[in-house]
Design brief:
With 492 residues, the chain is of the alpha/beta class. The protein has helices at 3-12, 35-49, 62-68, 107-110, 118-135, 156-163, 189-196, 216-223, 232-237, 241-244, 248-253, 288-300, 324-335, 349-361, 374-383, 399-405, 416-421, 442-458, 460-472, 477-491, and strands spanning 20-23, 54-59, 73-82, 85-96, 99-105, 145-149, 173-178, 186-187, 209-210, 213-215, 226-229, 258-260, 311-318, 340-347, 366-370, 386-389, 409-413, 435-437. It binds adenosine-5'-diphosphate and alpha-D-glucopyranose.
């Protein structure tokens, strides 16, 4: 055990490292829609390297059943009340790459999509909350810390305190990590009264109320013993009304218990030197393979341009958060820089349509692959020259870190984790790992793109220097895991 942890534990009067149960709606590689899954899949493995036994509890989604059913072991089952329904709960265990994942099975709630949207989604995760709390005493693994993530698991701390206080596990410590404050799980009071037996006295602004509704996430912000988010800048931002989405009051009041821990990425999965999903391997010292990845990517995506043409990519959920309004505004103008533009993503139908239309206007220069494709994402990180991430807000962002690891320079807006992970190019010192702009303004973004494209074309040596800087950054999860370990110990 690290000496620092020994000392911290001693100060707390503990003689062992805490056990942690991480509750989440998704967990890579078994279920994933975004960065949350990556973090939940990677964190426990890095904690294990520090000697911390951290396990995950997550729904047994359809996609998990389809792929892993023959590796899953049934542990036990029981039933819980959900309003007027009595519902089956199966607890299954999957051990993957040394990580123990407990899966909550119920075909009615988890037999389809990870997120059903609207009230059905609230019902899925109200059920999950109850199932987790009732399952914990029988898992054979008693956590000291219950680590919740985002709104889907944010009711756990409140129910623990208000309904399980008289059980042993009701005294577990809780941490809530906010990966994205824009999604809060807001429903009418009756929803919480009926499905989770929440008492009426909690429907006030000091507890769960927000704009006449009640929210899962607000309950978590009020009741979790500690709060954190996924970058130091976002921790500051969410205390401000522009980013706080109505929770800035409670978060400012608890600012001393709210920290920002920058995420990391799995350096084994994202490694240009050994990635089996890319056509040619490369590293900092041997960049030639990257050009081969670019050419094969352009060919397969139908991009018909000289291989020296700057290739700008986006790999993203297509939502307002990701800055699509800026892209919509100036994409045609940017195409005037004689570039190729490749998008991999899915989401809002209006943005999807915009990208399809843009592809038709710029045949052979723009390619939009609408959908989710893991393999293609790796090929893009490896083959593109630049990754555009002009987010309106970005709690952390993993894509820019992955891009840097593959020598693809990010062009980002200076917000949240983008600000904390990308060092903007400095023309006087030659320092930098990417490019950035400050305001949410389409023409500011366009200028940043123009600057990057100009440098790429005319100053090859500087560009290669920036690529090496980017590839030399250490975004491994080890550093984040140490910070989480300190936080867990501090909670004991
Ligand atoms: P967010 O979680 O807000 O979507 P992040 O940057 O934190 O953003 O994480 C996104 C993760 O999902 C990255 O690993 C990225 O490569 C991946 N990703 C996003 N969209 C797609 C897609 N269409 N196909 C494959 N991977 C995707
Ligand atoms: C959320 C955020 C993203 C972050 C991810 C993992 O999806 O939008 O910025 O990287 O969670 O924490």
């Amino acid at each position: 055990m690290k000496r620092e942890f020994q000392q911290l534990l001693l100060d707390k009067g503990w003689d062992r490292l805490p056990r942690v149960l991480i509750a989440s709606a998704e967990c890579a590689p078994i279920s994933k829609t975004g960065g949350l899954a990556d973090v939940v899949g990677t964190l426990p493995k890095s904690l294990a390297d520090l000697g911390i036994d951290a396990r995950v509890i997550t729904p047994y989604h359809r996609c998990v059943k389809d792929k892993y059913h023959d590796q899953v072991e049934h542990m036990f089952s029981f039933s819980v009340d959900q309003g007027w329904r009595s519902q089956y709960v199966g607890i299954e265990r999957l051990v993957l790459d040394g990580l123990t994942i407990y899966l909550v099975d119920n075909e009615y709630y988890f037999g389809d999509k990870i997120y059903r949207g609207g009230i059905p989604e609230g019902e899925q995760y109200a059920f999950f909350t109850r199932a987790v709390l009732d399952a914990i005493p029988n898992l054979g693994f008693f956590p000291d810390v219950l680590h919740c993530n985002d709104w889907h698991t944010a009711m756990l701390p409140m129910l623990l305190r208000t309904q399980y206080g008289y059980f042993e596990h009701g005294r577990m410590k809780t941490l809530l990590t906010i990966h994205n404050i824009a999604y809060q799980g807001k429903f009418g009071f009756e929803f919480f009264r009926d499905l989770l037996r929440v008492e009426d006295r909690y429907f006030t602004p000091e507890f769960m109320e927000i704009n006449g509704c009640a929210a899962f996430l607000k309950a978590g912000c009020v009741f979790a013993d500690r709060l954190n988010t996924v970058s130091p800048s976002y921790a500051n931002e969410i205390c401000d009304p522009f980013y706080g989405e109505g929770l800035e009051g409670i978060l400012s009041a608890r600012r001393h218990q709210l920290s920002g821990i920058l995420n990391g990425i799995d350096k084994k999965v994202f490694n240009p030197h050994s990635d089996p999903l890319i056509p040619k391997r490369f590293d900092k010292g041997h960049l030639r393979g990257k050009q081969a990845c670019k050419e094969s990517l352009m060919f397969d995506m139908g991009l018909q341009a000289d291989p020296g043409t700057p290739l700008i990519a986006m790999v993203t959920r297509m939502t307002k958060q990701k800055g699509f309004d800026l892209v919509e505004r100036v994409l045609d103008e940017m195409m005037g820089f004689d570039i190729c533009f490749l998008l991999l993503g899915s989401g809002d139908k209006t943005y999807e349509k915009f990208m399809r239309d843009a592809e038709n206007r710029h045949r052979g220069r723009i390619c939009s692959y609408i959908g989710y494709n893991e393999e293609l994402s790796h090929r893009i990180y490896a083959g593109a020259d630049m990754l555009l991430m002009p987010s309106l807000f970005e709690p952390c962002g993993l894509s820019q870190m992955i891009a840097m690891r593959y020598g693809t320079l990010p062009i980002v807006r200076e917000t949240g984790g983008l600000k904390d992970s990308v060092i903007p190019y400095n023309q006087y010192t030659g320092e930098g790992t990417g490019f950035s702009f400050a305001n949410y303004n389409a023409h500011e973004m366009k200028r940043a793109v123009e600057c990057a494209v100009g440098l790429y074309r005319d100053y090859h040596d500087i560009w290669e220097g920036l690529m090496r800087n980017a590839m030399g950054m250490d975004f491994g999860f080890e550093r984040s895991a140490e910070e989480y370990a300190r936080l867990y110990i501090d909670l004991l």
